[in-house]
Amino acid sequence: MRQWTWKGKTGIAGLAVVILLGSVILTYFWQMRLQKPFEVNMAAMHHMGGMNGHDHGTMHDAAATGCEAITEKAGNEPVREYYLTAAQHENKLDNGQTELVWTFNGLTPGPEIRVTEGERLRIVLKNTDIKEGVTIHWHGIILPCSQDGVAGVTQEAVKPGEQFTYEFIADHPGTYWYHSHQASSVQVEKGLLGKLIVEPLKKRSEYEQEETLLIQQLNGTWLMNGSTKGVTIQASPGSTVRLRMVNAANETETISVNGAAYRIIAMDGHDLREPGVLENVQFQIAAGQRYDLLLQMPQEGKVIVANDSGLRAVLGAGSDPKSRSDYSLFDWTNYGAPDPLAPVGNLIIDKSFTLELGQTLFVKSINGKSFHEIPPIVVKEGERVKLTIINNGGGDHPFHLHGHVFQVLSRNGRPLTGSPIILDTLATQEGEFYEVYVKADNPGLWMMHCHNLRHSSMGMSMMFNYEGISTLYRVGTRSGNLPDL
Ligand SMILES: [Cu+2]
User: Fold this and answer.
1) How many A from CA of 438 to the centre of ligand 1?
2) Residue (of 433, 357, 401, 339) closest to 141 by Cα position
3) How much distance in Å is there from the Cα of 398 to the middle of ligand 1?
4) How far is the CA of 115 from the centre of ligand 1 (A)?
5) Angle at alpha carbon of residue 132, lines to 127 and 133, rounded to 5°
6) For the chain, which residues make up each domain, given as ranges?
7) Model confidence at 54, in pLDDT bands (50, 70, 90)?
8) 312-336 pLDDT tens trace
9) Are 333 and 418 in contact (CB under 8 A)?
10) 209-330 in CATH: which number?
11) What pLDDT, in 10s, does the model give residues 275-309?
């Protein structure tokens, strides 16, 4: 029998290390290629069969309707116009730091867009010098496919010197936001985002003042309404204030309210039913989500609304509320009152899909696949769809669906017992599973992705497509349209 020499053993061990390292590196690059495909038609991929579905193969339907042809029909509603110009800009932050950022009209966040329910918004986007192009996605707004602002799906990225006009009717009052959906993980972090508020047609009487607070991470720096220090808001003692909060960062924020009791009156722009008073309660707002609060200023002293990285909104004057650490955590699955006229127990479901959000080696995945390799969900107009969304790990995954809202039915198998919860972005944490209900009532090609945009850039992004809808545009390095990179 041959004795292995010391040298021979080292040689074999060395070879094993090289093979192992080699396969890790190969796997890494094999998976990373998904982020930059050469050319993909997001309307024509193999798709997922439903509960009673089957694989239809690819969709090359001669009679298909193009997404670009689905527009907001002309009407005689009032028009509100905005001009947004994307450009590189040197911004001096209020901590003295100078940052090269990307802005709309020189600002980040960009100009606040305000419109009244029922009005037609017309927004002219121009790009001065963002080389890879920009788009604007209107997060949470239900609009026609051609106006959704996804590069390579609903339009071409708008290159320097070019422009694109968005037009849609803001049907539903609430708190929304907008951001670029070309290379979104890069462009949002560099500053291409802003607030979008749809005011109700009938003014609400229960508050005297309203404020909007947008939290973002600009090149890694936490900002509230563009400030590293937070904001100071004048408010009279005893007055009632509505706070519209937007999380435009990638991480889940834990928000505390100190100095006053409050109510959460809306989530993702949708009013909650009979919301109760919360005291010493923190709430979590996931990336992409919006929470609207109503609070009454005390007769004496300030109210402080703070996130967990130290950003604060200070309302009112006088003494600080005494600091506390005994908060409990808000649970939206049993908050407020159910709607007796819209019970969810006997909803009819035409199609069901299960989406497992997780991590597969180096990429974020849905059902073990990433980005354009994930079979799209395909529905027909009018279908009632149930999605089971499972967070199998890899962090919080706030799951966002374009062009629709959905109603949350259950968390971890337990049906919701409070107010109906209608969202466009569902906060999910590791180990949780949710069932949500979507009415397929907006034919188009819609992205569905994690709103931690780093996760979507790593592959946690797929399509919710309607049968018979096609697109002229392509995602990939050939066209330069890389919506989630
Ligand atoms: Cu995620």
Assistant:
1) 21
2) 401
3) 6
4) 31
5) 30
6) 45-68+341-470, 78-199, 209-330
7) very low
8) 999 999 999 998 888 999 999 999 9
9) yes
10) 2.60.40.420
11) 999 999 999 999 999 999 999 999 999 999 999 98
